Each structure stands twice: as structure tokens, then as C-alpha cells.
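pls read this protein:
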Amino acid sequence: MSGFFRKNKKTIAAQLAVITAVVVLLFFVFGQKQVEPDTTFDDPPELKAEVMTVASGSDDTDGPGSGSGSGDSADDMEEETEEEQDESETVVDPEGQGGGLDGVTDSDNALNEEGNGNVGEPTIIPIVVDDEDPVIVTDLASYDNPRAISFSELTDDVLHFYAYIDHRKPGMKLQVRLFNDASPANGSLLEADGHNYGAVLAQGTNTITLYMREGDQIYDKISYTIIYMPDKADPDNPEVGEHPPVITVYSNVTDPIRTAHYIFSVGATDWHGDYIAFDHMIVSRDGKPFTASPTGTGIYEYDFYFDPPVTGDSYDVVITVLAWDDEGNSAYKIYTLTYEYVDQGDVIGTGSLNIDLTTIGLGLAYTGFTFDVEQGKPLSYYILDAMEYYGLEAEYSGTVDSRFYLSGISGGYFTYGYHVPDNLWQKIQDDDLECDIYRIDRDRLAEHHLTQGSGWMYTIDGVTYPGRGASEYYLDGHGNTVTLRFTLAYGKDIGITSNTGRLSTYCGVWINGGYEPRHTLDEGSVIKEATCTEDGEWARTCLVTNCGYHESQVIPALGHDWHETSRLEPTETEEGYVEYSCSRCAETYRNTIPATGGGGDPDPGNGGDGNGTGGDGNGTGGDGNGTGGDGNGTGGDGSGDGGDPAGGAPACVPERFSLDRVKGVRNEKRD
């Protein structure tokens, strides 16, 4: 037998090779399902199946054709029923650029439109979802979440919507609850009219939660947040809400504008005193909103470019500002500017530039440089001109036309005699900033000198610190004062807030040669209530963490508020009284009413005064009974103190006592 195989070895090998080639050929001809890419559609086919995004060639991709080789084979694909194919279409490469039949490329790298490798491009792979699974369907899902609705959009504050369970199983039910300030803690259960619901919204935040329940279990739930607020302010209603924001413009809006590149600086604060973010503001020019994000923080800078007039030398521009908070307050301002055309390079006004070294104890060290502002020339040019005027040298990166950054200034004895103010140095230490009191040059002051947060900044007219480099800032020429200031703490010591360090602000500024406190105080509260006899105290505290500053005021004592509470009328022989009580502290006081007296006929021998009865209620001085008997009446004359000639209650018992009167009576009682 072994000899047979040895003799026919070559023949058998040749036959096997032929058979193998035939099998392979048949497999490629009949064994693969051919799919021709459809390139006739303009948009990708609409998929009913849920999709997920994965990176091409990812090792952990479980879909067909993934790098892990765990995808379905061609034979598996053929076993898919025709009904399943209708519900989950195969994603193909519509551009015919080498994509696999399942949406994954044939190579390790996804191909971009140039045919180059583009690793990590997302590929859409359909995931088949059982269409019979129950699902919550609602038109609330058609809107943003959260969604803002104004008062004018609803009738009687009612939001109408529909919701139901699709493919609901037996025993399932939909429960809808509304949560807002007017609802109980667990929400208000909304009743359905078929699939329709109505939710009565409250001003502010409302949450509608849809629960899919199966018995006592929550199978699924979805929540939608709706912010219900008054209509925003407009030209007819420039202020809306109980506390409309305060809009402040920091640019010139009164004099004619001559710069073709106009920077409109504006900020708005809410009723708590906090700056409103730019995404709660709309700045428009002639009705067209400014769409690009502004520069700056809190105070924002919007760039407007003016074209030459079509006719004449000037024209008007209307700028509007709308600002709102999340509490239903909003404000609207209108500013009309006049642009006057000036040729490129011509003078449009004047300015000045100073150097402030107050943070190192040298005050406003360099002043006096003035210059003409030219059309089209940015601030960086004037900074270098000022350095030459003051005999200093600027250290900067970038150029005067692009990305100009002033990193240092040097000159003979530039920092000689410096001393960081003690209260500023204490703030820097409280802020946990890395510092070195000796890290400074006598002739040079640059970033990171003294502290890690030091550097040069510039301010326009002492109000704003623009959020852009000097090569991107254009002056309007209306006597602008530019001041270069050296900060030791990321601007927190010269009026800017920062999140670097333990403190966001230093609650004061060291500028222009002095210190000015600038605390952010709360609304204040009563620390001690005033009483009738003792002063109280009202105080407010700085809101800045770790600041500790507070201020207080005395609340004067209120004094007693007396009211009559009881009365006993006197008789001829018995005294009466009137009792008073303070409505605030419940302290009481009793005033005695004397007895009216016995009376009698005139009798000279009995000490009468010849005028009738001895005592008539007109006083406490005497009772008319006399003590002698001389016919002239020496006992009492009825004049008394505080009598009432009209015969009513004694005048010494007022309806309301003065505090001094009460104190006097108390002293008598103590004596």
C-alpha cells in the first residue's frame, strides 16, 4: 500500500489542487450575497431601528464587520426573514468609497471623502429593537427639555399635551404628575381625557413626569422641565417682573461715533447684584441680533463695524439690549447712535495713558502722556508710544497688529522703594497664592514677580478691563483714559473676580494711589430685635467666602405702646383707678383716681370756704372740709392739680402716656 502512494503521490496532489480550486471558485460565485449600493437617493435611507455611534475599527465593537471579528457572517445575513429586512434596512456606503455592506469600512481606518485614513470617524450601525415593547409617546418630547414658555403662549396658564403608552401590555397604566411651587411634595396627579392632559403651570420651574406602571412597579418614567415666565420685555414694555435687571452701557452712546470698529460694552445685573450671563442677553443692531459670542466676563464687548455712508457723512444706528433672569424678570433698552465717517488714518479724537503701581505701593507713578486717536489704529500702538514717552521699555509677545500681550515693563529704578500694602499682602496670603516678597527686580516689573498671579492689565476709563488683547481693542476717541495696572492676584486686587485661589475677589481695590473697599454684601438681617426699652441691631455680611466683613446699624428702642385695659370709677369715699398695658411687652401701669369726697352745706364754723361743698372733684389739693373754722375756708379751695372743670375723669389719666410721664410715675412709686 505504501508503494502505491509513493507511485501516485504526484497524481493525487495534482487532483486535490484542482478540486480545491473548483470549490473556492464556486464559493465566490454562488456563496456570497451581492448587494449593489444604491446611489440614486439624495438623503440616507430612513432607519426605523435605533442606532448607536461607534468608532470604526474599535476592538470592542459587536456589530458585523467589527475589528474583533465577532460580526454576523454572510450566511447568517441570509437567514434573516424578509419581514425583518423591511424593518431594519442594511446601511450601505452611498458614496461607493469602500465602505462595507454593514456601514463599516473594509480597512482598519474609516475613509474620508478624500479616501485617506480617518481613524475614529463615527459609523452608524442599526440595532434592532422589538417594536412590540411598550413605550411612552408624548408631544412634550417634540420640544427642548428644559423648555421655556411665556405667559402669552397659554390660556389660563394651562399647558395642553397628549401622552399614552404604545404597545401597552395588560395591567399597564400611565400616570402623569405635575411638580411645581403650587403642588404637594409628591406632585399633583393629572387626569386624562383620553390621551389628552392639561397642566396648570406656576411661574418658575414646573416638572411633568410620566410614569409607565405595571402593577406596583414603575416600568419606565420620563420627566420634562418647563420654565413658565412672563413675556420678556420689549419696546412697549421695557421692564417686566417685580425685579427687572439693571442694564448698564460702558461705551459712549451719546456723542457721535467716529471709529469704524466700534466696541459696544454692556453688562446687566439681577436684583441680587450678580452679573447676568451673555446667554441671557440679546444685543441687536437695527433689529438684527448679534450672533457671535462676545468677549469679556460680566461686562461684555460686542464688535460693530460701520460702513461708509451711502449719502452724506453720517447715519444713525439703533442698538437694543434685552436681558432677563430665570425668575421672570427682564429689561429692554434702546440706544440710538450716530456714526460720522472719518477716513482711515485720520484723527477721530484724543486719549491719554497712565501707569498705576498702587499694588506695590508706588501709586499712580506715570501720568501725562496724551495722544491723538487715529481711525483704524488699535490700542497696542499707543502703549508702545507711551513707553517711549516715559523712557521705559515694553516686553511683549505678538505684534502691534495681532495677539499683542504686554508681559513686562522695565526702566531705571522702575520699582525702587516698592512696598506691597499690608492689607493687600494679607489678602494674598489668605488666598493661598504662591508668593515671594523678594522676587522682583529694581528696574523691571513683569508677570510672576512677587506672586504667581501677577501681570499687567489695562482698563478703559477706569471702568472696564476688556477681555481681549490691546491689538484687538479700538478707542472711540472721546477722551479715553487708558491705565496700565499691575495685578498681584489675577486681577482680584484691581477689581476683577477670579476662580483661582481661595477667594474670588478681595472685596476692595488698590488703584490710583489708594485703597477702596468693595464688598458684596447680603440683604441684611436683624441680629437683635429692639424692645420697648432696649436698642436692637441690624447687620449684613459680605458674601465672599472667607472675607468675614460685616457692618451693623442700631435699631432704636421702640418705647411702650400703652392702651387702657381696665378702669374703676371712684366713689365719695373710695379711690378709683385706670390700668394701662403695653401692647408690645405686656408691662402694666395703674393710675389712681382720688375719691370724690363727702360734700355739705357752707358752714363757717366747719371750715367751709363759703362756696358750697368742700370737694368737687377738681383737684387733689383739698376736700373742702377744712381744718379750722374761720369762715374763710383754709382747708381746701378746690384748685388742685390737673382737675377737670368739666367734671369728667381726672385729666391726670391720659389715654396714652408719654414715656417721660411713665418714667416719672415709676420714680415716685420707687420713692
Q: What stands out?
A: The radius of gyration is 45 Å. Residues 1-9, 32-129, 600-671 have pLDDT under 50 and may be disordered. The longest helix spans residues 9-30. Residues 378 and 472 are 6 Å apart (CA to CA).
